């Protein structure tokens, strides 16, 4: 179980807030107390014995001789530091380097035997008992293997407590301090040179934690670090792994504990130097260079031009470029270009459309739920009918949910337009100029939905007749026409802007889509759902939205 948050960690957590991009900031090295179990033993490991290891009483020596004499012996160094070898006698080995053990025994055995070889290795090593004191999780005596170091003892004791230091760990032997360890060198640099082997009855004393400072934001490891008096911002950045790939390296913000009553936060310019002093309780925030939007006027524009142009593709244009500049970069338009049907889509518009569409969809679901909750059935037939309506409503909502806005901007061009408006571009814009269409589409509740050849003298009513006219279940009063430029003309538009005869007599344009909705039961609220066909086009959803709804 992770240790509880310290008071400083709680302060940092409040400043970070609920930012999902910023994980919980803890003290560096706090995992040491959570990853080591109390029953874990260092002796279970079988490390390689280094040549510098000093033989001590209690060590086991495995000795093999062959040649003029054959023997496999398992001997233990006695309390006097001697190794008793049959026929050879007692050989003093205490204090010898392990690398010199075999040669020392060979010289003594050569006084008794001739023409032989031997090998000497260490078996079971002696144990050492040390004491871990100070600010640790589980202070007291710890039994370790003779190859154990101060880090092993600290691990066995659960690591420094929340008030313990990782940078002020002393090894005391016979009443004097023989080493002072900084475990940050091990954790950050992988340097164990200051982690010597322990002797029996050594004391590992963990001092109180020193001044702490936090670093958050665009660094490789946000954490709280223990600081030395001589260390400043550059050392704090190094301990945090340095800047990450998107960091703004020109400035940082520092919230100092002793300035909370006045300025609270200061911004430090790093263009000259990073040698900024850091005090206990400071919180350093490294900014991201990409989290804030840049001014649109200063950005190059990456746009895509497709359709009837000489060189379609992606282009990067300077700030202030317009649609005309993009078309010129694409080599201009071909003779078949149909400017009236041009599709201009923009990512910022798509994002706004999606937000508004989601809000409208939530309102629709709320209205459906309120209507269903207020209905009462007096017979089985009514209950079945209401259940059928609720089911169809749910299907409609699910279909609406999968439809996505396209971000199309209606350019409101005349049918005979020969150019596009010189609109200033944004990054991610897309321009598609289709060839001049030769058909008019008629879909919905008609007898023969499909596309019909365009004729200049034909009206909307002419194409409805070609499709067989509205079916018996059609709602002719809600008929609407989607023009190739993205505008919508409907029977209901403008509170009676068009009468039935006006819309029927309206001249058709190449690329028009005529849609006749199906009649919906007017005794239920679901009848308003047919208005969503027009809402779809207001959000630039296109024919794909109607096809999705028609499944």
In words, what does this structure look like?
The chain has 551 residues and is of the alpha+beta class. Among the domains are: 31-44 and 127-208, Outer membrane lipoprotein wza fold like (Roll), CATH 3.10.560; 60-122, wza like fold; 408-549, Outer membrane lipoprotein wza fold like (Roll). The chain is built from 13 helices and 25 strands. The chain has helices at 7-16, 32-35, 101-109, 150-156, 183-189, 233-239, 323-329, 347-374, 380-402, 460-466, 500-504, 532-538, 542-549, and strands spanning 60-67, 71-76, 82-85, 89-92, 116-122, 127-134, 140-145, 164-173, 176-181, 203-208, 212-217, 223-226, 247-255, 265-269, 283-288, 301-307, 313-317, 343-345, 408-409, 430-433, 439-444, 450-453, 480-482, 488-490, 513-516. The chain has a 5-stranded mixed β-sheet with strand order 7-6-10-8-9, covered by helices on one side. Strands 12-11-15-13-14 form a 5-stranded mixed β-sheet, with helices on both faces. Strand 1 and strand 2 (71-76) form a beta hairpin. The longest helix is centred in the middle third of the chain and has 28 residues, at 347-374. The model is unreliable at 37-44, 494-499, 522-530 and 543-551 (pLDDT under 50).
């Amino acid at each position: 179980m992770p240790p509880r948050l310290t008071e400083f960690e709680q302060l940092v957590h409040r400043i970070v807030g609920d930012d999902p991009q910023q994980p919980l900031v803890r003290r560096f090295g706090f995992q040491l107390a959570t990853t080591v179990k109390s029953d874990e033993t260092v002796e279970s490991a079988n490390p390689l014995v280094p040549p510098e290891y000093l033989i001590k009483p209690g060590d086991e020596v495995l000795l093999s001789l062959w040649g003029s004499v054959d023997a496999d012996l398992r001997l233990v160094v006695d309390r006097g530091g001697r190794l008793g070898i049959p026929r050879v006698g007692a050989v003093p080995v205490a204090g010898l380097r392990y690398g010199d053990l075999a040669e020392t025994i060979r010289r003594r055995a050569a006084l008794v035997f001739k023409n032989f070889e031997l090998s000497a290795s260490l078996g079971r090593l002696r144990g050492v008992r040390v004491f871990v004191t100070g600010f640790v999780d589980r202070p007291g005596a710890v039994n370790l293997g003779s190859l154990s170091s101060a880090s092993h003892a600290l691990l066995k004791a659960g690591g420094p407590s929340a008030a313990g230091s990782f940078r002020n760990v002393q090894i005391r032997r016979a009443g004097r301090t023989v080493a002072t360890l900084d475990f940050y060198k091990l954790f950050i640099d992988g340097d164990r040179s200051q982690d010597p082997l322990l002797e029996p009855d050594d004391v590992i004393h963990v001092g109180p934690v020193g001044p702490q400072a936090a670093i958050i934001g665009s660094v490789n490891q946000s954490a709280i670090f223990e600081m030395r008096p001589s260390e400043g911002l550059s050392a704090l950045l190094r301990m945090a792994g340095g800047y990450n790939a998107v960091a703004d390296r020109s400035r940082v913000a520092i919230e100092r504990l002793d300035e909370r009553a006045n300025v609270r936060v200061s911004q430090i310019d790093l263009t000259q130097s990073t040698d900024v002093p850091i005090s206990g309780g400071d919180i350093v925030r490294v900014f991201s260079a990409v989290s804030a939007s840049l001014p649109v006027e200063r950005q190059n524009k990456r746009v895509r031009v497709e359709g009837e142009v000489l060189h379609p593709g992606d282009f990067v244009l300077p700030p202030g470029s317009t649609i005309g500049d993009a078309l010129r970069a694409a080599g201009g338009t071909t003779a078949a270009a149909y400017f009236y049907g041009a599709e201009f889509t923009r990512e910022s518009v798509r994002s706004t459309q999606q937000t508004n569409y989601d809000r409208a969809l939530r309102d629709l679901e709320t209205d459906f739920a309120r209507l269903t909750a207020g209905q009462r059935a007096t017979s089985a037939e009514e209950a079945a009918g209401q259940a059928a309506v609720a089911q169809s409503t749910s299907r409609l909502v699910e279909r609406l949910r999968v439809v996505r806005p396209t971000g199309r901007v209606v350019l409101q061009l005349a049918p005979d337009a020969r150019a596009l408006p010189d609109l200033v571009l944004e990054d991610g814009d897309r321009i598609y100029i289709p060839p001049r269409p030769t058909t008019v589409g008629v879909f919905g509740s008609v007898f023969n939905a499909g596309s019909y050849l365009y004729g200049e003298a034909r009206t909307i009513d002419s194409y409805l007749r070609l499709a067989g006219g509205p079916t018996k279940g059609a709602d002719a009063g809600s008929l609407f026409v989607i023009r190739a430029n993205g505008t919508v003309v409907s029977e209901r538009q403008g509170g009676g802007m068009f009468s039935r005869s006006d819309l029927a007599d309206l001249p058709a344009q190449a690329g028009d889509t005529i849609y006749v909705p199906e009649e919906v039961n007017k005794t239920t609220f679901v009848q308003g759902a047919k208005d969503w066909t027009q809402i779809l086009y207001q959000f630039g959803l296109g024919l794909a939205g109607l096809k999705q709804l028609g499944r």
